[in-house]
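Progress report, Aim 2. The chain analyzed during this reporting quarter is listed below.
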Amino acid sequence: MDKIKIEPYKVIGISVRTTNENNQAAKDIPVLWEKLMNENILSKIPNKIDNTVYSIYTDYEKDHTKPYTTLLGCKVENLDTIPEGMIGKSFSGGDYVKFTVNGDLTQGLVINEWLKIWEMDLDRIFTADFESYGEKAQNISEAEVDILIAVK
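Predicted structure tokens for the chain:
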């Protein structure tokens, strides 16, 4: 767990409003990932900075126990062109705590880390938390994923 500073950034992608209540997010988020892959969404995102996929949790109603928006997409240079069916958002960055997980993505690697994070006393601010799926996440059975949590 490292404390780092994130610069402001912009993302274009697809989103869903969900909640962790009644395990709803466990249903909604995989469907969103499926759409991202099956409809080749990444190739349709204009002005991409790189091919890293970000899974961003934002627009929290209160905290991780209440509704929030999940956005899957890529960082972009600007929000001038947002394709139909996608959304674009600007994030202000700030202070974050970074967790890195390694292992098999099909074995609950990321959600198991979130279960631990939800139990930690991190002084979270619930602005925009995210996962970063870069080059090291391409090998699904030996992936490396960063989870970044916005803190005071």
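Strands lie at 2-6, 9-18, 53-58, 68-76, 87-91, 94-103, 128-133, 143-150. The first strand starts at residue 2 and ends at 6. These observations will guide the mutagenesis work planned for the next reporting period.
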